[in-house]
């Protein structure tokens, strides 16, 4: 992926003999850049061996735990050009395992990014994935290392999706309680380089034991100190 910045040619001000008139200049509000050290995230996923974190309209990249890429955060519209400015946050995001396209979820729609641009038919409705028509949004989406299937979470329910065959699996949704020890209303989740699954909510995260299908002991832990190296 390559950062694309818009640039323009600055014009010299024109001179005029017409008397100046007083006009009201609209106030442009610059959004406050949030801090990762408060621990919360909107969405996160591993792309090309880097962790991408989304919070409001801003995005961070981490090469490793506690190792941020310099120059961030940036407005995610700059990096992922083509997503409308009206989209001010990302609900969930993951990278498809078979073609490495990235899916962004906003409200009841999703967008497909191929590494250079968004597909011409983006956005698409969640119903294309076999999700219910009354589903307002997703909380999280990730590919589980245990079986290679994609999981979608919303409140206290989850769905299992077969990305390669592009169909929702039978018997879903199921209750989130099947992920033993996991709380509902998670903020995001992803599989890290250690092939372990991590779930996040507010200021805390949980490590999931894929073999025993349960949350590991001694969790939850603080997100900011463990992942971002913040002093708490």
Automatic annotation (TrEMBL):
The keyword Isomerase does not apply. Gene3D superfamilies: Hemopexin-like domain. Its main location: secreted. One of its GO terms (molecular function) is metallopeptidase activity. Pfam families: Hemopexin. It is found in: Secreted. GO terms for cellular component: extracellular region. It comes from the Eukaryota. Hemopexin repeats lie at residues 34-83, 87-133, 135-183, 184-230. Keywords: Glycoprotein, Hydrolase, Metalloprotease, Protease, Repeat, Secreted, Signal. Residues 15-31 have a biased composition (Low complexity). CDD domains: HX (cd00094). Residues 1-31 are annotated as: Disordered. The keyword Glycoprotein applies. This is Matrix metalloproteinase-17. It comes from Caerostris darwini. The gene is MMP17.
